[in-house]
Design a protein that fits this description.
The structure is a homodimer of 217-residue chains.
Chain A (H helix, E strand, L loop, with lengths): L25 H16 L6 H8 L6 H5 L2 H26 L3 H18 L1 H7 L10 H24 L8 H20 L12 H16 L4
Helix pairs in contact in A: 1-2, 1-4, 1-6, 4-5, 4-6, 4-7, 5-6, 5-7, 5-8, 5-9, 7-8
Chain A binds a DNA duplex (30 and 30 nucleotides) through helix 3.
Chain lengths: 217, 217
DNA sequence: CTCGGCATGTAAACAGTGTATAGTTGCAGA
DNA sequence: TCTGCAACTATACACTGTTTACATGCCGAG
């Protein structure tokens, strides 16, 4: 029945208490709900049923769009890597000297992490993500490629364009910002002599760290 | 019934299929089981019921010794920090020059992490651990203090005993080895130009990284 | 030596979780 | 217009951590 207005209710935006059997935009609604939950409660506070609850559907509904909870979270993680890549690219192209490129990217990396800790943690929690997912791996590689570009610029601008130092420096820089991000999220840095807020922390401490760690030029 | 043999079976070591009502050494048995599960399946594969199952007791039994699952895991994490501290101390005292102290400690840190990835991850998963546990925090601080000692040696041996560089260098070194450990555990380093096994990886890549990152002396 | 307190264990139940299955709805293309 | 099939519901299952009431038996006080 109610066959009238055949193509009337396809979008329906946010159906709080919806009256239609089909949601209409459940996939994006679930992605949004999952992102919200991750921001509020982190990866451990996440549950697929809660996401379904917020989207106003039954617990089994998400399976039709994402297969499993790992499928949904993988999609969120991919979005995270895309945003991270964009942030790193902005930091790289907006800076002039290769040295400031690196420092700016480092700040971006950590800012991204502590700006959305739950999603950042998720992005490296491969026990919660699909294994061997090509799109996820490609998204991660894209972010890494941004770092590599800056490292390469940094090296080629120097006197010795030593290609053999590329991998160690890239690995070291990535490890540093990645470890810094993890420690900051875990609150392990509050006991150190940086009493500021985390945002201040990144803006002040990280450049100092990178300057102390980077070889003299 | 079976009230005979009153004080006959108090230790019983490992009671596979035990006949006594009381386990006798349940606390240590649960710690061992938890450590085993973490080594086999990581933090996500861990379950309190499985630990109880391996110890041969009912699901409610662990509560009497650890209160909650977080209580048990906190104990395992503390043991991990103690072992890490010892490893870092050995690396520090066994090395001669301050530079080799740092590199040796870096290798120890990462080796410890990839040697028992599940437990290492647990040690920084404060959503699985008791919050504001004094013993846990003290154990973590002790490990950090080992790093700080080496950094201090490294600085004071140099020409300029610049105290202002202590915190940044400590923070940078910790971030580097910590991030390196996480990336290695997450398998993010296999795509890079280090085709060796992880153990080889640490022995070869990390010194190279640290040498490239440490300021020239 | 006996006997009660209490730490240590069991058993069962509860509210959660992710997912599989069977059934229902209704859009979309032939 | 009809029908296939994607999308959704309802239910059930096995699993989780924790709580409750109860059982056991060690250990020290009288």
């Amino acid at each position: 029945m109610t066959t009238m207005s055949s193509k009337s209710h396809l979008p329906a935006e946010k159906d709080e208490g919806r009256d239609t059997y089909h949601h209409g935009a459940l996939r994006s609604a679930l992605l949004q709900a999952a992102t919200d939950i991750l921001r509020e409660n982190g990866p451990e506070g996440f549950s697929l049923r809660e996401a379904a609850r917020r989207a106003g559907v039954s617990p089994g509904a998400p399976a039709h769009h994402f297969g499993s909870v790992a499928g949904l979270l993988t999609e969120v993680a991919i979005n995270g890597f895309v945003e991270l890549t964009e942030a790193l690219r902005r930091a790289r192209t907006a800076s002039s000297s290769p040295g400031s490129q690196l420092r700016s990217q480092g700040e971006s990396y950590v800012s991204f992490a502590i700006g959305a800790p739950g999603r950042f943690q998720l992005m490296f929690r491969h026990d919660l993500l699909l294994e061997n997912d090509e799109r996820l791996e490609a998204a991660g590689q894209a972010a890494l490629a941004e770092l590599e570009t800056s490292i390469r610029d940094y090296l080629t601008t120097g006197l010795s364009a030593d290609e053999s130092r590329l991998q160690p420096l890239l690995l070291g820089a990535w490890s540093t910002v990645h470890g810094f991000a993890h420690l900051a999220i875990d609150g392990k840095l509050h006991t150190m002599a940086f009493p500021n807020s985390l945002v201040h922390f990144v803006a002040q401490a990280l450049p100092e760290v990178l300057l102390a760690m980077l070889p003299d030029r």
